[in-house]
Specification:
heterodimer, A: Ferritin, 13 helices, 2 strands, about 0% strand, B: alpha+beta, Ubiquitin-like (UB roll), 2 helices, 3 strands, elongated
Chain lengths: ~325, ~100
């Protein structure tokens, strides 16, 4: 330990200086083990969320009300798969493998965002997810474009560019319903009523109770606190809801002149922790479906590997 | 259970003619042809490219981050390689 200390110390000083100077840490740089572990946890959870997030929306592809909406929804769900792949690649630069990440998702050892454990009951839910869930995700992700870990930050730049379409298509969908028949308007309002609170929970527990926040901010993985981002999201949504002609289901929601922000009612954290513990409406369904999709795709992966192997062997003989 | 051990490929995309290929990211694929197809689906869904290179990640030789300073050091003390090193009287044009 006495012989190792000076080396580790100087590496750590270089790392600390890079973070302090707002430089990016790259895959082959020395980094503290806890920094690496924290990034793997966060990036893996983020990647898994993109992949699991395909399910609630894909639920409506075959029932989209027009060809236009169907094409949009398919493109969006395909984007979510793409975002998952960008993020898995970023996680792999930290020394973990794709198989290991998938195993941990399938066995429940790594989590995904609890928002995707809620069901999509009507077509309007597709709109509410785009506007609120993707809106909350964007609020979280824009600061991650300046995250101290280079590959994660670069993946976030790509993701954020594409998320903008996701949010706008959701908003437009809700606006169309809101201005439609009385039944369509009611359907839009019902979806917003059900997705509003879970969307606020997406920012994570209050700052005082957040397990990883302080360290992540010191490492500049996170740039803003959970409560700060939640407040930003609420302030953005209030006028957007007015333009939609829909209300947000919070009687305590009002402008606070003194703070320059909207006050909002208490969040039901008991519900959040229940869903996190696996007791949400769709936890089992989501993971079962994911495992099934992976198993159903096994023959494709095996066939592609066999073809590649055969091709390599043939080439080897020709070359010999 | 269904471990594939597909190799990792680095993807380089030329966004339009006249520009060089730029690193876009990486992906797994069993062979070069599938790597190209996957790269098209993953990195050019919005017409971001007119040409793609895929390179097995294992084929890339990189300078070590540990050697960073000594490796690049020879360039550090040669400011005379830059045009701003030279004092030119004011009023001299096209120089």
């Amino acid at each position: 330990m006495t012989t190792m200390a000076p080396d580790t110390g100087s590496y750590e000083a270089v790392f600390d200086a890079a973070v302090a100077a707002d430089e990016r840490i790259e895959p082959r740089d020395w980094m503290p083990d806890a920094y690496r572990a924290s990034l793997v946890r966060q990036i893996a959870q983020h990647a898994h969320s993109e992949i699991i997030g395909m399910q609630p929306e894909a639920n409506w592809i075959t029932r989209a009300p027009s060809l236009r909406r169907k094409a949009i929804l398919m493109a969006k769900v395909q984007d979510e798969a793409g975002h998952g792949l960008y993020l898995y690649s970023a996680a792999e630069t930290l020394g973990t493998s794709r198989d290991e990440l998938l195993d941990k998702l399938h066995s429940g050892r790594q989590k995904y965002s609890s928002i995707f454990n809620y069901p999509t009951l009507t077509w309007a839910d597709v709109g509410a997810i785009g506007w609120l869930v993707d809106g909350a995700a964007i609020t979280n992700q824009v600061p991650l474009c300046r995250c101290s870990y280079g590959p994660y930050a670069r993946a976030m730049v790509r993701v954020c560019k594409e998320e903008s379409f996701h949010q706008r298509q959701g908003y437009e969908l809700l606006l169309t319903l809101s201005r439609g028949t009385e039944a369509q308007h009611a359907m839009a309002q019902d979806a917003v009523d059900r997705w509003w609170w879970p969307s606020l929970m997406m920012f994570g527990p209050p700052d005082g109770e957040s397990a990883h926040s302080a360290q992540s901010m010191a490492w500049k993985i996170k740039r803003h606190s959970n409560d700060e981002l939640r407040q930003r999201f609420v302030d953005i949504c209030v006028p957007q809801a007015e333009s939609l002609g829909l209300t947000l289901p919070d009687p305590d929601l009002r402008w606070n002149e003194e703070r320059g922000h909207h006050d909002f009612g208490p969040i039901d954290w008991a519900e959040f922790h229940e869903v996190l513990r696996g007791n949400g409406p769709c936890n089992d369904q989501r993971i079962t479906r994911r495992r099934q999709a992976h198993e159903d795709g096994a023959w494709v992966r095996e066939a592609a590997a066999a073809y590649a192997g055969k091709h390599r062997d043939t080439q080897g003989e020709a070359g010999a | 259970m269904t471990s594939t051990d597909w190799p990792l490929w680095e993807v380089f995309v030329r966004s339009r003619r006249g520009l060089s290929h730029t690193h876009a990211g990486s992906l797994h694929a069993p062979d070069a042809e599938m790597a190209l197809r996957n790269a098209r689906d993953l990195y050019t869904r919005r017409s971001e490219g007119v040409s793609i290179w895929v390179v097995p990640s294992a084929s890339i030789t990189a300078s070590s981050p540990d050697e960073k300073d000594p490796f690049f050091e020879p360039a550090a003390d040669k400011p005379y390689r830059h045009p701003t090193f030279y004092d030119i009287p004011e009023g001299v044009r096209h120089l």
